[in-house]
Amino acid sequence: MTAAAPSLTLPTGRRAVPVALAGALVAAAIAYPLSSGSGRDVVSWTIVLLGSALSVVHAGLSRGARTGAGVLLLVALVAIAFESVGVATGFPYGSYTYSDVLGPTLLGVPFLVPLAWLMMAWPSWLLGGLLARPVRAGLRRPARIAWAAAVFAAWDVVLDPQLVQAGYWTWADPSPGLPGIDTVPLTNLAGWLLAGLVLMTLLDLLVARTRAVGSPRVGPAAPLFALAWMTLGGALAHAGWLGLPGSAAWGAGLGAAVLLVLAVQHRRAGRR
Description:
The protein has one domain (about 15-235, about 245-265). The protein contains eight helices and four strands. It has helices at about 10-30, 35-65, 65-90, 110-130, 135-165, 185-210, 220-240, 245-270; strands spanning about 95-100, 105, 110, 170. A two-stranded antiparallel ribbon has the order 1-4. The protein has a two-stranded antiparallel sheet with strand order 2-3.
């Protein structure tokens, strides 16, 4: 007799958990521009908690419990390291201060911030993997890391002006910024690219070392849908409700560029 091969799929109920979390996240994101005051703060916390839970749950279900726990620990440590240095020195993002609205802090970093990194990091790594598929095998890992870091930074292009508007942090000198965004300096984008390269390199190594045999055992649809909605839906909210046309245009443009790249890849793959 031979040992049974490991199962490559999960029970339907467990596979539905990331979908349910993504759906709840989208509902909370829709509620954000429709809320105000302290209610909007509650919605912000809800979005981040749901997004971080989605990342950890999907990482665990798709690659195994060790990967899920490792993603949680790794992203939290890297986030606290970068953000605490950023608050203390201004490197690598520029000089900024957090408001008291975000609650308790660790080394000057509100607890909400590492959770926001977690919400963004895992979907960015998954999308980086999709974008790097056409690259030949020997260069696929660095391409995946580069794409993932770029997605990670691009997400913040949309998110940061929204959270500055909400009063969660303030930049000492927000200029020069991207065209149309006058509340966030370009140094922030450079900092996110650097942080993204470090984080995605470590995340890539983590997954390679901890992933379960036969993974991925559930597809990336739920976290990728959440990423798409937070970017493109966020752009719509910025344009229609939040009075942030600059970040709306950047979000729409960056989201459309990624969709175009994926469409071209799909078309080329279909010709082979």
